[in-house]
Design goal:
Layout (H helix, E strand, L loop, with lengths): L7 H13 L2 H7 L6 E5 L5 H8 L3 E6 L2 H9 L3 E4 L11 E7 L8 H11 E12 L5 H13 L15 H10 L2 E10 L2 E2 L3 H9 L12 H13 L10 E2 L2 E9 L2
Parallel strand pairs: 1-2, 1-4, 2-3, 4-5
Antiparallel strand pairs: 5-9, 6-9, 7-8
């Protein structure tokens, strides 16, 4: 999967904006009371909880045991499961996902599993990182690694597709695509780039000696300060989201 060590407390402190900005995706889903809904990549359950409050019967899954524990602490049904290896069979009226699918590089397996999990006519609605998402941050990470003799291509890479590519993937697995749109969304980072890197950059540092991590991250911050930090000292990340809605052909 993503080889990321998730901490629910760190995520809540540095990245609560991820769930807050996912509320419009819930509105696109239009959940109905009594529906069975799978929250794919539920994280700490902030949006799973909102789905349940709308009267849906929700199961959340996530690859992180710490995130699943935080979700369960909200009184929700949550399970540790790899989104690239789903084990459901025609169980759900809808599958919902926010800010998780780009951590699952085997997108074909993900969409195939979602299609298998849905009832005929079921909905797949979500938002993920799209083409050019956090491009400046990725470039700075790669540059800092390259400068220290590491091959950036040996490490982790997020899955940030174009709208056209993801729509084609959905169509290939029997979905009718209602919407697939790239949305540029400059995003304020409440704890700055340090907090963002502490939360999300771990996979890029796999294979890099721990003693080098502070220097790598310090150089990334320096490089990005010229592009993403405002004159007032705020950090604005270069987010681009891919929002989509599709239904499984009956």
């Amino acid at each position: 999967m993503d080889k990321q060590d998730w901490s629910a407390s760190t995520y809540g402190r540095n990245a609560r904006f991820v769930a807050d900005l996912g509320v419009p995706v819930l509105e696109l889903l239009q959940p109905q009371a009594g529906e069975r809904i799978l929250d794919l990549g539920c994280g700490d359950g902030a949006l799973t909880e909102k789905l349940a409050a709308m009267g849906a019967h929700v199961i959340g899954i996530d690859g992180s045991a710490d995130m699943v524990a935080a979700c369960r602490a909200r009184g929700l049904d949550a399970r540790v499961m790899d989104g690239q290896n789903l084990s459901f069979d025609r169980e759900f009226d809808a599958v919902f996902s926010n800010a998780a699918l780009h951590w699952m590089p085997n997108a074909d397996a993900v969409v195939a599993g979602v299609a298998q999990a849905l009832k005929p006519g079921g909905r797949f609605v979500g938002e993920m990182g799209g083409h050019a998402n956090v491009a400046a941050i990725v470039t700075a990470l790669r540059a800092a690694l390259h400068a220290r003799g590491h091959n950036p291509d040996d490490g982790f890479g997020w899955f940030f597709p174009t709208a056209e590519a993801y729509a084609a993937l959905l169509t290939a697995h029997g979905f009718t695509v209602r919407q697939a749109t790239l949305i540029p969304r400059p995003t304020h980072l409440p704890t700055g780039i340090k907090g963002w890197l502490a939360t999300f950059a771990g996979p890029f540092l796999i294979g890099v000696p721990a003693a080098q991590h502070p220097d790598v991250l310090a150089e990334v911050e320096w490089l990005l300060s010229r592009a993403l930090r405002t004159t007032a000292g705020d950090w604005i990340a270069d987010y681009v989201r891919l929002r989509f809605s599709a239904s499984l052909d009956a």
